[in-house]
Specification:
The chain has 25 helices and 13 strands. It is α+β, with helices and mostly antiparallel strands.
Length: about 475
Amino acid sequence: MFADETSKITAILEAAIPDEIVALCGRLEAAGHATFVVGGAVRDTLLGLRPSLADFDVATAAQPDEVRRLFGFRRTLPIGIKHGTVTVLLGSRDAWRKVEVTTFRGEGTYVDGRRPESVRFLQTIEEDLARRDFTINAMAYGPVSRRFVDPYGGLEDLRRRIIRAVGDPLARFREDGLRAMRAVRFVATREMDLDPATRDAIPLAMETFRKVSMERIRDELCELLLAPKPSRGLELMRVTGLLGEVLPELLEGVGFPQNRFHAYDVWGHTLATVDATPPDLILRLTALFHDVAKPRCAAPREGAGEEEFRFYHHERLGATMADAIMRRLKFSNAERERVTHLIANHMFYYTDEWSPQAVRRFLRHVGTEHVEELFALRAADVVAAGQGKDPEAEIAPLRERVAEVLREAAVLKVSDLAIGGHDVMEALGVSQGPKVGRILRRLLERVTDDPTLNTREQLLALVPEVAREDEGGEAQDV
């Protein structure tokens, strides 16, 4: 909630600005350079959030060389200096804290859709704010002058919870292609709405958006997915055409019906699943892609209506599709492997008839380190079906069985076996190779069915038999 009086706005901002930032601004002001805190720190403070020191950016009339001379060349870094930015190092050498200080500037043509080809230094904060993306980011506060500057109505837009471009929205989006993703990300993370004129300009600037690197788009998507309700941003991506550029595979689920067990189409179910998943990036990515293959795997349910489908093996194709999507977006190998593993295994069906061996096989296949993630995804999946079912009614019995197996210290990995690869090589008189790994995995299958076999003597006795099985299997494969 915001007070109308300037004095109250001033008090809110003064209380939030760290002493180190105030001192930095004071030093610049004492040298005759108007200086302001700008951007996200001002916005978030007025939203009632608590920015960290790293969130405070400073804009000043001092030119980069003047900033470096004032703070010393040992305490400044010229990173970004050609665009007017100098990083000032605060604190002690063993615990530097970095603050970006940028000269008031205007910008030339954005030839690459991301960075201006040139900048020109200016003298007033008002001129500098004219180049900002959204009104809520075009506010500034001078800790020394105690002056609050808001030429584009950013404070009012915060009150109305509106994301609105500074000036001509089409010009802003054609300057910097990433601004479109930033707009939908802010809608989700700050739980705001997008101004209609700003929204309508996004499709018209798609040529510029296509110039942005996948890494930057990925980073914005990840922040969006960690929002309280990611569906707000994801649906806006669909409406503006961004989804078709970034994740076209998900468009196949828009309007694609499922069956009587789901209240929503595939896209609606996906959005609901993402929202219902805990705010963990891997889980949210898994939820986003868990049903991506359903439209491609759809088969009519026999004897049912026209909009009744089964989706055979969609988890397998879904894992393959998610892998391709995440490669395209430059996710790390570790992130891809975790997400695709969860997608490939999310369609488990537990019943009370599961034997202890079946529970151990489930754990061995899924991995103990992933089982809680899988349960969280299943809970979100059940909620997102829209049938009002309690996910714990389905999950709790299996969770209890899993806990029981883990208490028994069950053998679930090759490394849990009482013998290792060197023992197998010595027993068979063979050198290291893929055959050794196959034999160990076959031994693990035996121990999964009968944990009492996990002794050194019994496993060594089983090695020749398992080796013959392996040779027979290889022969059949040929």
